[in-house]
Amino acid sequence: MYERFGILDVETIMALLLWGTFIVVLIVLQKFAWKPILAGLKQREDDIRKSVENADRIKAELAAVEASKAKILEEAKDKANIIIEQSRKLGNELAGQIEQRAKKNAEEIISSAHQEIEGERERVRNALKKESVQTAVSLAEKILKENLDPEKNRKLIDQAMKDV
Predict the structure, then answer these.
(1) How far apart are CA 153 and CA 161, in angstroms?
(2) Model confidence, pTM
(3) Radius of gyration for the chain, computed over Cα atoms and rounded to the nearest angstrom
(4) pLDDT digits (tens, 9 = 90+) for 70-121
(5) How remote is the C-alpha of 10 from its chain's centroid?
(6) Residues sharing a CB contact under 8 Å with residue 143, sequence separation 6 or more, in sequence order
(7) What is the pLDDT of residues 107-159, one digit of tens each?
(8) Average pLDDT for 37-61
(9) What span, in angstroms and rounded, lies between the C-alpha atoms of 155 and 162?
(10) How big, in percent rounded to 5, are the helix, strand and coil portions of the chain?
(11) Which domain covers residue 107, as residue numbers?
(12) Largest Cα–Cα distance of the chain, in whole Å?
């Protein structure tokens, strides 16, 4: 029932049409679909590569900033230690100066007290001398007034001694 057409029978024509359609679709896809898809993939790959490079660059910058921060903190710590040490030295010097002033003031107070004591001693000695002289004069006056007898003189002297 089927007749054969030879080389161009239906199966061959269908196969040729199938291959022709495949090649046309392949050309159309390559021109309108694969090139933009491949270009988009290439663009995305470039964007990802740039992002990775930027991330590496930022990571390196961050490491540099961390190192700089650590250096600044170390310098600040050193400066703080220097300031603390200077403050200690200044405090010790001020304490020494205050102590020297206190000793000097104490010595001045002691010296002043010694001078006052000496002045008071001298005043007391002078007062005792005056009183002794007055006592001696009054005793002599009494003796001369009553130059009666040695017994009375002795009593007067004893009485004057008791009064003193």
Answers:
(1) 12
(2) 0.43
(3) 65
(4) 999 999 999 999 999 999 999 999 999 999 999 999 999 999 989 999 998 8
(5) 100
(6) 153, 156, 157
(7) 999 999 899 999 988 888 888 888 877 877 777 777 666 665 667 767 777 77
(8) 93
(9) 11
(10) 95, 0, 5
(11) 10-163
(12) 207
Angle at which helices 35-145 and 150-163 cross, to 10°: 160
Other Cβ atoms within 10 Å of 151 Cβ, number = 8
**What is the C-alpha to C-alpha distance for residues 40 and 42, in angstroms, rounded to an integer?**
5
Query: How much is the pLDDT for 132?
Result: 78
Task: Name the amino acid, one letter, at 73.
Answer: L
Domain assignment of residue 3, yes or no: no
Q: Is 3 helix (H, G, I), strand (E, B) or coil?
A: coil
Q: Distance between CA atoms of 164 and 136, rounded to whole angstroms?
A: 10
| Counted domains in the chain | 1
Q: Which two tokens stand for residue 144?
A: 């001369």
Q: Enter the tokens of residue 34.
A: 């694969």
Q: Looking at the domain assignment, is residue 2 inside a domain? A: no
**pLDDT 10s digits, 24-48:** 998 988 888 887 888 889 999 999 9
Would 5 be classed as within a structural domain?
no
Q: Is residue 4 part of a domain?
A: no
